[in-house]
Write the structure tokens for this entry.
Amino acid sequence: MKIKLIAFTTILLISTCIVFISCTKESAMASNTSAGKGGSLTRFTITGNFLYAVDNHFLYAYSLINPSKPEKVYTSPLNFDIETIYPYNNYLFLGTKTGLYIYSIDTASKPRLIGEAKHARSCDPVVANDSVAFVTLKGSNNCGPAISGLYIHDIKNITQPILKKTVELPNPVGLGLQDSILYVCCGNAGLKVFNVNNPYSPGLISTQSDGVYIDVIPYNGTLICFVEDGIILYDITKPAIPLMVKKITN
Amino acid sequence: MKYALLLLSTILLCSCWKPYRTDFPTQPPERKVWGSKPVYTAESVAKKIGYLSQKQPLVQAGNIYAFENYIFQVDVGRGIHVIDNSKPSIADRIGFITITGCQQISIKGKYLYTNSFADLVTLDISDPTNMLEVSRVIMAFPELAGSYPLVQPAESGYYICPRMDSVVVGWVKDSIYTSCYKN
């Protein structure tokens, strides 16, 4: 009886440890502390051992196997005005003036175009998770005539993104996703906080108006906002309720 | 009187003598206007990386990057501000990496990757008080060579289109021949 109890307890302990370790590993990869986190308006991104960069017409891949000496391994001329790049899993999402383009980096040194969702001429940063891509489009003199707003695409079949929902918004620019909360910067119209638990019926929870918002990074319980005159930090221990903590402006 | 006449005839004859110019422009010269003139610096000087270990004022807010207890913010065309975020309620800028032509940023491990005009620059940031350039890929992004913010003056009007073999670090007002116009 005693032996059975000891055996049972040992098995229970071991399985708990295994579950704990695998869960920790997953969250470590998710927060990716050795690489930090960039915003959605970036043209440089690092995933795995590669730096991917875009200028207006080219996608470049640089190997960081020797991290102090990046080495170019790939250049691809693209036929569109590229604005931004966003990595998720084995994909790169390129925001361009004419559409969202999805590249596979199964072979990290050779990005391969696998899907696209064209749109009217505009500027468009993007963030994504396993099944949804959130894109903001801004129509303007510089960007193009599209209707400004949040465009939500179903990417369960990643080679064929389907536009499922549009939310008209004023001046949307950068955006950030934390679990089922989406933060969308709308310049001087504020920072919009959406519940996207049901991604194709986003619910606006609140609008923060502490600055002119351009981009955001949710990072380790803090929402780091790039505003026109610097940075604003919010505590997002409760992601749906940002609480302003500090302004770092001149 | 004789000499006066001689002098006068010499002067008059000189006025007839026009050396033949082969380089005379076939169109009328561009007119002079009040506009902006670029101030250049040598590429080697402009591309030097430095580090200031005091808080610097922000001129043009740019891309942000979060890394462990730090936040980095690009000051477009000028460099990167380093912010200590170990305690968010008192987070503030603690230093500035001077990188002319800087626009982008990404970090992995102890290396920060950025651009200085068209070059891809790698910095070792393991010592936050002494950040050093460790390598540079010249002309990594040729399309960014002329797309740094100071390639045009801030205000609209006439300006001299800058040479591509030099780096513009500022603009001054002067009387210039019309060259380029910014709306």
Summary: The first strand of chain B starts at residue 32 and ends at 41.
